């Protein structure tokens, strides 16, 4: 079953209830034609984020593979890739993936990011709110899961704002190049 694929601009309400109008930032579903642009965006994210597992030098997906990846998201109704787009530029992304085995298909896992110059402006909250609404309206999905490094306080604040709860922790599983070792939290929401 195909669900709403056309999402509109929206208002982000901060924790303090202050409306932040994102009139120019639109949340859209990724299209295969955006593969090259999306790859450039993802490469920039890996190069500017200190809290991800993949290092920029390890990112190898070319435009054709990315194109197929987007096309598969479009035909798999339990998965979606949402983009935050401002004046044609991709400034944020959420993508979710779902195990097809029936016993766990009600649970989807997601990853998200916002372009470095666009962080702390509400784009992440806008994306996440659209994604949660999409899951809420979904006939099968019931649970949303994510993984976050324990030192990623920015992301953890965002997830807690939306009532995600820490369900478990993998201890000392991430080792950064400078020797720091951190935990990996599994957080979940039943929207
Ligand atoms: C995590 C990320 C997606 C958040 O996106 P964003 O657009 O900056 O999020 P928002 O602007 O909606 O801010 C979310 C909240 O974080 C808070 N925040 C900002 N910087 C923070 C920090 N250093 N520590 C704690 N909270 C912080 C904001 O105040 C806001 O809370 P509020 O609405 O209660 O005021 C973005 O920082 C990012 O892409 N980081 C790099 C990639 C990454 O870490 N992805 C997540 C992997 S699990």
TrEMBL record:
Highest taxon above the source species: Bacteria
CDD domains per the UniProt record, alphabetical: NAT_SF (cd04301)
UniProt domain N-acetyltransferase: residue ranges: 25-191
Keyword set, alphabetical order: Acyltransferase, Transferase
Matching Pfam families: Acetyltransf_1
PROSITE patterns assigned to the protein according to its UniProt record, in alphabetical order: GNAT
InterPro entries in the record: Acyl_CoA_acyltransferase (IPR016181), GNAT_dom (IPR000182), MshD_Acetyltransferase (IPR050276)
Gene3D superfamilies: 3.40.630.30
EC number(s) per entry: 2.3.-.-
Gene Ontology molecular functions: acyltransferase activity
Protein name: GNAT family N-acetyltransferase
